[in-house]
Fold these 2 entries.
Entry 1:
Amino acid sequence: MSTSQIALPVSISEAEVTREKTLGGALELCAKAAGYDLDKELQRDLGVDKGQFSRWKNGTEGIVWPKFVALMDYCGNDAPLLWMLHQRGYELSSLRRRETETERENRLLREENAALRRVLQGVST
């Protein structure tokens, strides 16, 4: 998978995220939930070397936003971001994602379809 692709979403529970003690642990959870270790395949696909992964995990080097997003996209979950929000005092159970343009279009089409069905049912009775 290239890093320009986004993986299928992987479900991460609030309990899993809040159980992690460090950002490094949350990074590992992100990879583990997608079926990876912080291993050579993941390193190669993200363009990160073993040392850099190790420094991220140990908290001795920060992770820049583009690589942070690439890791979450590649693994299909937002575990590290959710961990950060939890650490900052946010209630994870009340967060929700914004509707994407495609999701909005689909919702509007479903609503239009339902309205047309109601009209047609009224005509046929």
Entry 2:
Amino acid sequence: MLSVRQLQAGYGAAQVLFDVSLDIGAGEVVTLLGRNGMGKTTTIRSIMGLLRPRGGEIRFDGTAVTGLAPYKVAKSGIGIVPEGRQIFPTLTVEENLIATAADRTGSRRWTLNAIYSLFPRLKERRSNLGTQLSGGEQQMLAIGRALMTNPKLLILDEATEGLAPLIRAEIWTCLKRLKAEHQSILVIDKNIKALANFADRHVIIEKGRSVWSGTSAELLADHSITDRYLHV
């Protein structure tokens, strides 16, 4: 579904990505791992068209999307839950969800009722403004907003960063349910054990280069991998 090959990107004179490659198949959950500052968010920004790559290729559903405008990438069927959530603060919960509603797949699987079933708390808070939500509620809303585009691929950048343990557990439960429903997902997060419980494969990047990829069993079996590339 998504194929990234030898991706290169940067900001001004500073090159951040030198050689990043990854693949996501239909219905797969893949993680992008690495220490802070290694290029994870830059990779996501490049995929979404928010940063124009300097080299390499990005293909989605067999079509090249390298360097396309963000709205064209979104229309192709990629939904994003960005780092920092970035919900619309002056819109209500329901208005946030409706604002992004689209049918990318022809099935319109995700509707308001479906989102409220996934996150009952959002239904309770549907008339509240974005500024009146807790961090956990904002993350639920950001996920719901992305799902309302009915994406073929869902990308989450820092899925549970800064959230309380109970809310983190709720987010993981949500992602496991999406996986069970064959939603393709690319997720960035630091909680390796939680990710290994449901992700199919993992890609690690170090200083803007892909340095390792493998299954959850392979990642957990070799502590030298996490010690070398993930631990501070």
